[in-house]
Amino acid sequence: NAGVMQNPRHLVRRRGQEARLRCSPMKGHSHVYWYRQLPEEGLKFMVYLQKENIIDESGMPKERFSAEFPKEGPSILRIQQVVRGDSAAYFCASSGTGGTEAFFGQGTRLTVV
Amino acid sequence: AQTVTQSQPEMSVQEAETVTLSCTYDTSESDYYLFWYKQPPSRQMILVIRQEAYKQQNATENRFSVNFQKAAKSFSLKISDSQLGDAAMYFCAYRSDNNAGNMLTFGGGTRLMVKP
């Protein structure tokens, strides 16, 4: 049973470009969570999605950031017009319905130059 | 809102010795879960141990154990017989039992160094 898969592992974008981060949850999991980890800090919750629904986006910046989890395919975290402050590691986690543990992917390290 | 605080940015331990990492949290809820995660240089978040707040007994996983003090809102991690492979960032995390999901609130982390 493959774990949570994130790609790419590393992503470099120039200021003003768009970044797309992908997350495939563990098989059978329908709940996805995105977190951001700034250098030397802990992970901060961004958004919680179920298939085709955003459940909680209280941690998402109001502008430039969006997330989706379509019926088919991976969850996507999209950052438009990236700025240097967006440089961070972005983690995805997934869980099953009723489960009490979330499993993490290896993260995507975004560098904005 | 819940907050999680790890007051030790760095800790150091001699190989084979015991070390305790501190964590305090603030919540008004009575039902919740607490976790310790390990993050080695590979960045992978590895669950070390978990504790349900309704359980009085402290969780134990091999060399890892916790001291859960619910009234004091304290959740420390003890690592016994420390090994070189234990060197990593350690994060304490809180999860409410009152919502539908597994959203976690993390502390700022403690970097553990293990000396040979």
Strand content of chain A: over 45%
Q: Quick one: which chains have the greatest interface?
A: A-B, 24 and 22 residues
Number of helices of chain B: 0
SSE succession of chain A: EEEEEEEEEEE
Q: How is the main sheet of chain B built?
A: 6 strands, mixed
Approximate shape of chain A: globular
Number of strands of chain A: 11
User: Fraction of residues of chain B in helices?
Assistant: under 10%
Query: How do the SSEs of chain B run, as a string of H and E?
Result: EEEEEEEEEEEE
What is Rg of chain A?
Answer: 13 Å
Which stretches of chain B are poorly predicted, pLDDT < 50 over at least 5 residues? Answer: none
Percentage of residues in strands of chain B:
over 45%
Distance between the termini of chain A: 36 Å
Note the quaternary state here.
heterodimer
Offer a quick outline of the entry.
The complex is a heterodimer of chains A (113) and B (116). Chain A has 113 residues and is an all-beta fold.
SSE inventory with pairings:
The complex is a heterodimer of chains A (113) and B (116).
Chain A: E1 5-7, E2 10-13, E3 19-24, E4 31-37, E5 43-50, E6 53-56, E7 65-68, E8 75-79, E9 88-95, E10 103-104, E11 108-112
Parallel strand pairs in A: 2-11
Antiparallel strand pairs in A: 1-3, 3-8, 4-5, 4-9, 5-6, 7-8, 9-10, 9-11
Chain B: E1 3-5, E2 10-14, E3 19-21, E4 24-26, E5 32-39, E6 46-52, E7 60-61, E8 64-69, E9 74-79, E10 88-96, E11 105-106, E12 110-115
Parallel strand pairs in B: 2-12
Antiparallel strand pairs in B: 1-4, 3-9, 5-6, 5-10, 7-8, 8-9, 10-11, 10-12
